[in-house]
Amino acid sequence: MPNARQEASLTQIRRLLSRWDQGSTKVRRQILLDFIELHTTITEPELESEFAQSASLFFTRITSWLRISYLFGTCLNEQLRALRVFLQSSTGNKYLGEFLDVGGLFTLLEILNVNQIKDEDKQQALQLLKLIADNGRIYKELICQSYGIRAIAECMAKTTTNENTQKSAQFLLDSLAHGNPTYTQQVYKGLIAILLSTSPKAQELSAALLCKLQPQLEQVHRSLLEPVINLLQSFHAEVQYQAIELIQILMSNKWNDDNIVSALADQLMTCLNDPPNPDRTDDDDETNDLIDSLKGGPMPIYVQQAAACKCIRLLVDQHYRFLRLNVVHLLLCVMGNEAYPESQRQASLTLHTFVERYPIVYEKVFDALGEQLFDAFHQNPDGFYARMTPIQADVCRSNLIHMSFDENSSD
Length: 411
Fold this sequence. Notes:
The structure is a single chain. The chain has a domain at 257-274 and 297-406. The chain is 69% helix and 0% strand. The protein has helices at residues 4-22, 25-39, 44-50, 55-69, 76-89, 94-101, 104-112, 119-133, 137-145, 148-158, 163-177, 184-194, 200-213, 225-230, 237-250, 258-272, 285-294, 300-314, 319-324, 327-335, 341-357, 359-369, 371-379, 390-397. Helix 10 (148-158) packs antiparallel against helix 11, helix 11 (163-177) packs parallel to helix 13 and helix 21 (341-357) crosses helix 22 (359-369). The radius of gyration is 30 Å and the shape is elongated.
């Protein structure tokens, strides 16, 4: 026979369920808000005790309402937060099992790519999926088998107004990439696809996660090379930083794959080439500068050029490879690129690194620039470009330096 306390709990839960079944949307929202406020840190035994061992009845009502109303966004945020209370309180996966049995996982994945659903609600869905994934490999595989990686990646790439939603997607992909060997490669390819998105934040987060994931893999996928080089065109410093970090990882000696390193080196060298502009003449420089300004800033190709110079400077272990590709000639040409001062600055700093490290480069650059111009460059590589005259810029662009294999020297 139930004691008085149990009878009181049963009466209370009956009233709650009756209010829910007969209540309007407003009433149900208030029930959910009250539940969330009172039970945020509760455990499963405590929850069952408070609901007289009938918490599943309330849980089932929430999941049922979610399945029939999520497309309309009705109280969606409150429903997801209430479900989180149940799932994070579960110690024996009781509520998680019930949730999966009624198709809750598929509902969460569908929420991610419904356009009319708010980003804040998608963030709640991502956090619930992370909660599920954290229960172990079986649940990670279940998410992946349900085409979860694609849904999460698309959500991350298409979200443009809420960075927290994108960060939640990154955390979830990170979870799915670890302790889940069957689908690690699928997550890896999904991250590469995100690099092609138009969202700078998605590109940054994806590149950051690839920096973490790539060293744990045995090989580099060739489809990664072009997207990561294209990230150097980004106007966002955070994206460029992560791209350069990733390029340094890809060009490390760990992979024992010279084809990958050579391909990246060739692409970086290609970035240094200054594309000719046949429509631009000395007579209309001022007009063209105004047009460039109205277009919103420098050409992406010049932004990429500056970033490539910086990247080459940071690739200390690969300097000898770049010397064999005649990088000194191109760096001097970029120093003469008056269309984009940041390219001049980065090329000057990078060339100065080679000059200091390799005596043969010192001699070649000295001969190409002449004593006066070389001294001005050598004494202040960071500010040299700002005082460069058009004639000096032309001297840099017209250099005829060619580094043969025999001329290069190592440390």
